[in-house]
Amino acid sequence: MTQGTILIIDDEAQLRKLLARLLTLEGYTVLEAPDARSAHKLLEKSEVHVILSDVKLPDANGVELTRQLKSSHPDTEILVLTAYGNIADGVQAIKNGAFDYLTKGDDNNRILPLVSKAMDKARLQFRVRSLEEKLGGKHDFSQVIGQSPRILEAVNLARKVAATDATVLLLGETGSGKEVFAQAIHRASARSGQPFVAVNCSAFGKEILESELFGHKAGAFTGAVKDKKGFLEEANNGTIFLDEIGEMALDLQAKLLRVLETREFYKVGDSKPLKVNIRILAATNRDLEKEAEKGTFRADLYYRLSAFMIQLPALNERRQDVPLLADHFLAQLAPKNAKRITGMTAAFRQALENHHWRGNIRELRNVIERAVILADGNELDIDVLPLEFTHPENDGPAPLSLADMEKKHITRVLQAVNGNKTRAAEMLQIGLTTLYNKIKEYNIR
Ligand SMILES: Nc1ncnc2c1ncn2[C@@H]1O[C@H](COP(=O)(O)OP(=O)(O)OP(=O)(O)O)[C@@H](O)[C@H]1O
């Protein structure tokens, strides 16, 4: 295995060759360039860890070149070769970002350890970068599955606005991927290394939402024993995602408008305003424009939020993405549920394509997960689909009564979850009491 790649930039062929031979013997991969122009070309094509550059080049000054290269290739380390006795060049090169400098004519005892140190540092930097990209990749736009023109258009808009600090309002039905988009926008923005805080505005009562968002001072209300940071403060320097913003009470909307305008707010029970540096993303599945006309949502807040809107298509409007998404979820959920399932039958695919997806991608994901749990073989077939997916009217009279089918289905689900009734009720999307009643009614054991 190579010890890393080194690029030598020097117009003196003899010296270049000598250094190249020395470094090749040490196990490095060595590239050579006689001038800055050819060095740039090589850097476009290859990943270079360390550069050894002469100061006097035919088309550039190595000290100046260091500054340029460090800004275009921050992870690459540069060693500058100065003429004998010219310390000033070396010092300036370090100021410009060089790892160190060598004097032409230095012996191998100085060159090799220095190259090795620069190499260790550069390789570590390359490794950190690649891990960061892998981690970041979990959330960036590559995770937005879909090839339909409608979703590609939404991704395109989101990518463009991600680079700015603009407030974005994501519109779309429940389960259409608004949170997935919000995370992707954050990851693709300059704030990606900072917090992403998601708040579901419908999950809290009015007073609680206010103190969760803005935080409170100790003693602000009964039970407020200590000062508490709110979500806005937690998101400082990063992004806050306000999901289901249409559910927010009108007087809280007024306070939020102030945050949008000034990035300032008051903690509950505090008289000093707090300033934050945050980007605000919001989402709703309601028609806020209509609500603003009716007065159930503040018009001024709506205008602020709607400066940049992205409409996410419902799954029914992009049916061509159903097979892609189904394959994606199968690949993700089969290993998660310790199942070896390699595909789905044509009938299963057809049933997915014919279905009306009210719950959008979330519903599709749930259907695949349920199918994966119930499947016995290594292919998903229609017997593991919920009842509404099968069309008995097209296949002649159903062999079983509806009650028999229900009994059979509940029994199967209970088996699949080893009798865990809470989990079974979740999968069947019925209440626990209803499940107990049905177990009694059908005498399921
Ligand atoms: N384009 C996509 N590719 C892959 N998975 C997706 C995509 N969009 C959504 N999902 C998945 O679908 C589910 C629902 O997505 P998400 O929570 O983003 O929807 P939402 O619109 O925010 O829903 P709600 O309105 O209920 O908050 C999640 O499991 C998410 O990972």
UniProtKB/TrEMBL annotation:
Entry-annotated residues carrying 4-aspartylphosphate: 54
Keywords, alphabetical: ATP-binding, Nucleotide-binding, Phosphoprotein, Transcription, Transcription regulation
Domain Response regulatory: 5-119
Listed SMART domains: AAA, REC
Highest taxon of source: Bacteria
Residue intervals of the Sigma-54 factor interaction domain: 144-373
PANTHER family: SIGMA L-DEPENDENT TRANSCRIPTIONAL REGULATOR YQIR-RELATED, TRANSCRIPTIONAL REGULATORY PROTEIN
Identification of the protein by name: Sigma-54 dependent transcriptional regulator
